[in-house]
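re: that chain from earlier
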Amino acid sequence: MKYQRFEDLPVWQAGIELGRQVYSLTEKPAFKNRYSLRDQIERAAVSVSNNIAEGFERGTNQELLTFLYIARGSAGEVRSMLHLLKGMLPFRDLESEIRNLLLKTESISRQLGAWIQSLLNSNMKGQRYATDRVKEADQARQERDEFLAKLEQIRKGGATPPEKA
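^ sequence. v structure.
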C-alpha cells in the first residue's frame, strides 16, 4: 500500500500517540520541579512524529531516510529516559505507564527500522523524481512481472490458459 499523506502512516500515528502519552505522564506530580527532565522527554517524544512527517513531505527517499533515522533516534532517546525514570524513587508509582511507553517506543523503533531497510533496498528515489515517464516504466514493469508470474503458474500446472474466442 502506498501512502499519500503522512497522517495515514501507522508509525506516524503511533508517534502521535507516544507524544500524547508522554505529555500525560509528565503532568503527574512526580515531574513537579523537574523541568529539564520533563522538557527533554516531551521534546524527544514530539520529535518522533514530527520527523516522520517532515521526511515524508520532503519528496526524496534520501531526505526521508535522514528524517526516519532522526525519528528512530528520538524514539531511542525517549526509551533511554524511561529507563532512567524506572530506577528513580519518585517515579515508582508510574511503573506500569513507563513499561507501556517502553513497549510503544520499541515498536516504533522496529517499524522505523523496517521502513528504513525497505527504502535502502528500493530503486525508487522518491516522489520528487516520479515523473510520468518513470511512473509508466514502473507500471509496465509491474504488468510484465504479473504476466510472467501467470505464465509460471500455468507452466507448473496451477491454472489452465484462457481459451481463445
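The domain at 6-124 is CATH 1.20.1440.60 (de novo design (two linked rop proteins)).
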